[in-house]
Write a structure and sequence with these properties.
The chain has helices at residues 25-39, 43-61, 85-97, 149-156, 206-221, 251-264, 285-307, 311-315, 320-326, 328-338, and strands spanning 73-78, 116-123, 130-137, 164-165, 191-197, 225-231, 271-273. The chain folds into two domains: 66-307, P-loop containing nucleotide triphosphate hydrolases (Rossmann fold), CATH 3.40.50; 310-349, no CATH class. The chain is α/β, with parallel strands linked by helices. Strand 2 (116-123) and strand 3 form a beta hairpin. The chain is globular and about 60 Å long. The chain has a seven-stranded mixed sheet with strand order 4-2-3-1-5-6-7, sandwiched between helices. One of its GO terms (cellular component) is cytoplasm. InterPro entries: P-loop_NTPase.
Amino acid sequence: MQLRGGYPAVCGSRRGCGLAQPEEQRAEKNGAAALQTLWGGDLAGRLFFYYVRKSLLATIRSYKPYRDLVHQSRILLLGPVGAGKSSFCNLVKSVFQGYVTHQALVGSNTTGMSVEYRTYSIKDGNDGNSLPFVLCDSLGLSEKGGLCKEDRVYILKGHTPDRYHFDSTKPITPKHGNYIHCPFLKDRIHCVAFMFDANSVEQLSHEMVAKIRRIRREVIKCGVVHVALLTHVDSINLIAKDDFIDIYSYVPVKCKIQAVHRKLGFALSDILVVSNYVSEWELDPVKDILILSALRQMLLATDDFLEDLPLEQVMELPEMSASITRNSELMIFILLKRYKLPCFLVEVP
């Protein structure tokens, strides 16, 4: 099973892969047509991409956050203005709906289109149920403005409500009407995805590089794991459609990944790439595989965050009190462990 770089194995997740649910006929028809165009009638090629895409869809649909501590993993999208944060929300929704959608507002405004904090719970096009993750879109970053430090910290810790309108002159405060005073674990951010346009990442100013490095330190201080995502790789000069088959081995893309690693300090294994839907109205299974692979890595990163939570911090979460109360033996065991008392009197379930 390959978790990072290139295309994943047909059945790939550390949680295993369940049976794929039936795709919408429209998505299957579009996918088959795109594969026919790419592979020119090669049945083996068409089947390979069809099953990889279907396997990734099944893996993400059956995903459950670590130890069921939350029902949905929460992923925050951060990045410079125009990096493609809102576009990524649309990409993910399009794949699961079976057609290209534009729920999140996108555009070429130099100040960014996102002025609100938005949380997108993506619906599955098969049954209409919410998928096991939430994508959080926020104000873009700029050299001397954008999302301020206080707002970033409040978002990471779960205090910021959906549809909060950012004010460039002042951050949210506990006096705000919808401020979340006692956030649950489900309100907190479990993974941060730093978004960068592949065409401009090498031209980031010294001020922007310093700002992103500073934000990375803030994220690490909050204990949140993070990845980097390069968008718009389809716009890189001289790239052809066949290059998407093994995009991580394509030299210009490797140079972009190396630039992110060198300038911003991200581990090479934490740098992902996606190709955007810009003018297309039909889904492309090769692009879908890149999108789903990146999303899967983000979900695995959220599990790393949840798994690394200290026991004391988990036990202090408001949502844990009910489950502990229902299990008296577990409650006694936790208390004994906390105060370093002998545990031989309790049979741990």
